[in-house]
Amino acid sequence: MADHGGGGGCCPPMDLFRSEPMHLVQVIIPIESARLTVSYLGDIGLIQFKDLNAEKSPFQRTYASQIKRCAELARKLRFFKDQMSKADVKSSAKSEAKAEFNFDELEIKLGELEAELTEVNANNEKLQRGYNELVEYKLVLQKAGEFFKAAQSRAEAQQTEASSQQAAEDSLETPLLKDQDSTADQGKQVKLGFITGLVPQGRSMAFERILFRATRGNVFLRQSSVDEAVIDPHSGEKVEKNVFVVFFSGERAKSKILKICEAFGANRYPFAEDLGKQAQMILEVSGKLSELKTTIDAGLSHRANLLETIGKQYEQWSELVRKEKSIYHTLNMLSIDVTKKCLVAEGWSPIFATQQIQDALQLATVDSKSQVGAIFQVLHTKELPPTYFRTNKFTESFQTIVDAYGVAKYQEANPGVYTVVTFPFLFAVMFGDWGHGICILLATLFLIFREKKYSSQKLGDIMEMTFGGRYVILLMALFSIYTGLIYNEFFSVPFELFSPSAYACRDAACSEATTIGLIKARDTYPFGVDPAWHGSRSELPFLNSLKMKMSILIGVAQMNLGIILSFFNALYFRNPVNVWFQFIPQMIFLNGLFGYLSLLIIVKWCTGSQADLYHVMIYMFLSPTDDLGENQLFPNQKTVQLVLLLLSLIAVPWMLLPKPFILKAQHNRIHQGQSYTPLEGTEESLQVEAGHDSHDHEEFEFSEVFVHQLIHTIEFVLGAVSNTASYLRLWALSLAHSELSTVFYEKVLLLAWGYNNWIILIVGIIVFIFATVGVLLVMETLSAFLHALRLHWVEFQNKFYEGDGYKFAPFSFALLVDEDE
Question: At what angle do helices 658-671 and 702-726 cross, to 10 degrees?
């Protein structure tokens, strides 16, 4: 959440360790200044209103009609946005000259614009349909005209041939009966009708079959495909079509053909048999097309100008409508007084914002010219306030990681403070390679340098998530470079960065310097792992031992931090029971076993002892009185182990037994003799207390509390072992990352280099780059991130963090900007 409350000294410095102190406030607002008051409070964005009309449906609330008006305006704006996107018109970000509109004026203005745009669209649609029909008509005239011309030319050719044959055959022997028959045939000739139009090309074959079957073959159909797709007048889509002419005989056949044309979506057009009329009609249609084209262009130009005008002020109007809708939605949460002259609001606000809220109330009273000012008062309640941390763009992503597990209870210790450092550090322990760290750093710096551009754009899901966590990734990269320098790995290759290696060959004949024959010749390598270890026979045993012990030390330190934070929570909430019967036994148990193991690791490193720590820890439980022999690391070690073991055993019943009995005694003492409770002084306090403190008078369930404490104790005892073992994932993932990096370097890059072939080398480099980016920089990064997340959520936070609070969600116009309607 953005840091509100910028001005002056009203805001204390940012404090992430505890959430902001909150109080429940009541504001009594005169009805004439209610809208302006809520608007000014929305500008501040530091009050979370409670819904005092929860039992009412949305339609029964006071400002339901205004919400309806806002919804109607939002619909009109969505209509404009849809039209602008279709016309590819962009809305300008913000209007420089900010025209002031009140809500009623905006309603009239948008109504007029919608009516005008709807009329322009309807006219354009009508003209476009007419234009598309004329285009189809012209095609029919041209294609069908070609049919008739071809038919006429064939008929004339046949007639000429027939007349020449007739002249040759005419003689006196020709029977008279033949003339009579031919005359009779001419009298019986039937006039054929025809229908012309266009049918979609994909349905032309089915159209032909259905015509043939419906008329039993008594039709003659000619089709010709149109070269280019035409826009269908009815659907407005581009369709491949065929021009057809159907010849038929009789009205019955005609009615069947018309029905089939309608069923197949075939558009029919009139056609004249006379060639002269056909030419005249083509000229007329061409003239009409040019006229319509001019008219449509003028209409589209007018529509574009209208949408440009809307686009200039669209964002401003949209913001105004969103604000108005949110104001009336908030007003609907307020309860109206019996006199219907004022509204009563209740809500949570940070204590530091009190002066800002009072100033906003006073300003609203002046600006609305109300004779009565709003009344602001603080209410006392036992209800748990919301949790509010003021974060900036750097700490917000770390707080989001904590909130994903659970929102902190009001004013409990916030793990987010420590997560800023511990999360990227644990990630880097698993990912340590300063070459890979530099790659991630460069990618993150690119996102940070283009921060302003990307923050105003709508990004994809993955990109948005990556961009949101850019500062987490930045620290992860920096810590990875640091741990990579400690591990001395640059894409798995060691470098002598700080000084030459401390080891050298025993003699000049030492040919296998990486495996045998090395002796210490110089001072110890000053920082990190000596490069001579890489590639030696002892590399894995040495690094495994180092990383495993380091993981245990880091884990025990972080778990101790968690238990110490539970101590500060107990102090802050004045809960001495948790200090004496939770914090102290937990510290004794954890450090009596695993704190002691950490101490042994450090002593062994400092003294160079050969003691077997596995043997020491196992026999500390199995045979605590036996002599340690060569595994003894310091004097009186056996006595120390016996004391620690005894204290650890005592810590378990110490955690389990006293707390439930003490809680029962406290409950009995608090409620002893409280059958009758005194009445509160004011009606408001009765209203506020009602329903909030009923749990205080519930029957104390001792068995439930005892079982809960038993579960908590078992969970801690077993968790101390399992959580310490869980930190070994730091060692495992670090080893896996190192070995994968070595495999890609040796088996891809060095192998390709060894062939002395440029093509193989280029292919090898490409494969190495893709493997490094895909596996090590993407998959391994994600894997280490998830494991670091688990260590924080489970191993660290379960020691002290309840996470059962709820987030502060103030009424703020700043939070409405990115909302989709």
Answer: 140
